[in-house]
UniProtKB/TrEMBL annotation:
One cellular component (GO) term of this entry: ribosome
Alphabetized PANTHER family for the sequence: 50S RIBOSOMAL PROTEIN L9
SUPFAM superfamilies membership: L9 N-domain-like, Ribosomal protein L9 C-domain
Stored NCBIfam families: L9 (TIGR00158)
Molecular function GO labels: rRNA binding; structural constituent of ribosome
Protein name, per record: Large ribosomal subunit protein bL9
Length: 147
């Protein structure tokens, strides 16, 4: 049975791939769970159009993000948290926290994969993180203060 994948399926393929699978697996798992449709000529043409639209949309998003990255250079993000007597945070600042801070403080939505942090920040002070999209990258300053 030939199917067109609507989503990435581990060990089978990626979205928009046309795969040959056993009929029971195709009907009872892939199609039933909305992961695939039967590969007819009409469905293949429809998926080709969707694939081209998806690629174009991804390209445009990437270009917009690259332009936004240019404005990030020398920006600063502020974090506050509870600390002990030695200035160590009870919690840490990690990639998820930086992603949320970029969204709230600088109004920029990025995936975690674009944020390159060597290790979580566990102390009060200043640091930096590299944000990279495509060929563009910017260094964002981080400032961690006690509450």
């Amino acid at each position: 049975m030939r199917v067109i994948l609507l989503k990435d399926v581990p060990k089978i393929g990626h979205k928009f791939d046309i795969k040959e699978v056993k009929p029971g697996y195709g009907q009872n798992f892939l199609i039933k769970n909305g992961l695939a449709i039967i590969a007819t000529k009409q469905n293949e043409q429809k998926m080709q159009k969707e694939m081209h639209a998806h690629i174009e949309e991804s390209r445009m998003k990437s270009e917009l993000l690259e332009k936004s990255i240019e404005g990030l250079e020398n920006s600063e993000l502020l974090f506050t948290g509870k600390v002990n007597e030695k200035g160590h945070l009870f919690d840490k600042v990690d990639v998820r926290d930086i992603k949320e801070a970029l969204k709230e403080q600088l109004h920029l939505e990025l995936d975690e994969k674009h944020i390159h942090l060597e290790s979580p920040i566990k102390e009060v002070g200043e640091g930096s993180v590299v944000v990279k999209v495509g060929d563009k990258k910017a260094t964002v300053k981080l400032k961690v203060e006690a509450e």
